[in-house]
Amino acid sequence: MCDFFVDEENEEDNDEDNDEDEEESEVIYLSGVALSGTVNKKGITELISRIKIFDKLFFFKEHAENSEKDLIAVRTEEGERIGHVPEHKALLIDMMMDAGKRVYGRLEKKEPMGRGFKIVIGVYAREKKCRREQDSKGNRKKAGNNGRKYK
Question: What is the pLDDT along the chain (151 residues), one digit of tens a residue?
């Protein structure tokens, strides 16, 4: 059972490294996240001005110096670090990355706030599409018994 929102508008990515698995996958919206670590960051104004709404962002695990837990850093396609996901939201992304899911973000909102910026990203994952089998007439088979009749 899938209880996530399927983002059909952003389903098509124009990445050159798409493989056959991505062609048969759905983009699933997981959560919206306001990033941390954007205050007093050198060059953040220039970096944020170059990023456009709905630009694709990537997650990387980084070791935090003052904590035992790893941070989930958010970077642009060029590898520039924007900030990190707050600890209370990082667990879901961390578990999905550990499970081998393709998790990424898209910039949803950017606005100046105090000495930094409020940056909100949408977190997305790719999930294989579930396809029901069809009989020879093109009718969907009922789930549960794979369309077989039992006596």
Answer: 333 434 444 444 444 445 545 556 788 899 899 998 877 778 888 888 899 999 999 999 988 777 777 889 999 999 999 999 998 889 989 998 888 889 999 999 999 888 778 999 999 998 766 655 566 666 665 555 555 554 4
In a domain, 97, yes or no: yes
145 lies in a domain?
no
Query: Residue 83 is part of a domain; what is its CATH number?
Result: 3.30.70.2330
Structural domains in the chain (count)? 1
pTM of the predicted model as reported, rounded to 2 decimal places: 0.66
In our burial notation (b when 16+ CB lie closer than 10 A, e otherwise), range 25-55 reads bbbbebeebbbbbbeebeebeebbeebeeee
Q: Answer yes or no: is 11 within a domain.
A: no
Q: For residues 146 and 93, is the Cβ–Cβ distance under 8 A?
A: no
